[in-house]
Known about the structure:
This protein is of the alpha/beta class. It has a single domain, classed as Rossmann fold (3-Layer(aba) Sandwich), CATH 3.40.50.150. The protein has helices spanning 3-7, 11-14, 19-29, 58-61, 101-111, 123-126, 130-135, 137-146, 150-156, 189-193, 196-201, 203-219, 221-225, 227-230, and strands at 35-38, 50-54, 71-72, 86-92, 112-121, 161-164, 167-168, 234-235, 239-245.
Amino acid sequence: MDVYDTIGATYATTRRPDPRIGARVAAALGDASSVVNVGAGAGSYEPPQTVLAVEPSAVMIRQRPARAAPVVQARAEALPLATGAADAVMALLTVHHWADLAAGVAELRRVARRRVVVLTWDAPVFRSFWLVREYLPQAVAFDETRAVPVERLAALLGGARVEPVPVPHDCVDGFAAAYWRRPAAYLDPAVRAGISMLAQTGEDALRPGLHRLAEDLRAGRWQEEHPDLLDREEFDAGYRLVVADL
Ligand SMILES: C[S@@+](CC[C@H](N)C(=O)[O-])C[C@H]1O[C@@H](n2cnc3c(N)ncnc32)[C@H](O)[C@@H]1O
């Protein structure tokens, strides 16, 4: 069974595409007139020129809107597509889940005629995000077992440019750092269920840190410790677009 068949049941409720991040993805895809979306999940950020989505989890496939691109149930490591099948291939917030990164990236390069666009995160930057540094070190310890070093990804892609993707303070896509200025959101089990780092670390390991966060918010300590965050519009938590021209 795929991991997302277990943790993905409510994905589409908290993981809606954020338009500002969508604009960054669209800019990275440039003038590609055909796109394959690998690790497509429920279809977030899929541009209209998407010709095929590839996704291993049936639970995720069921959450794709009726108007979304056609989808095939398969994995990045063995794409059921011809060489050079699309102008561009994109893989967003998915490479850390792949069993064989090198095989998956080789497949992205084989299927893309011109460009590969990957959205990932830089673990050394993410590690300093207040949630994991101050409250949930167990979660970041788990996260770093699967994090893909940006330099390794760029090397596997045969060279790539790396673009920071700051997170807006009201980000509508509820990924791990989306609520950097809305700390109470992490106390909501529905929010945590949509963040694989937290869902896979497990509630028992998270409980003490979440309890402390709740207490600090109630007492105003979190607010006292983070005055710099409260008037910021966006925050660099380490998310990166890695863009390779082939
Ligand atoms: C965090 S979700 C991201 C989904 C979508 N790209 C988005 O941005 O909302 C990660 C997705 O990667 C998929 N995935 C896991 N292993 C995979 C693999 N080996 N090949 C392709 N996709 C995979 C999961 O099933 C899940 O749908």
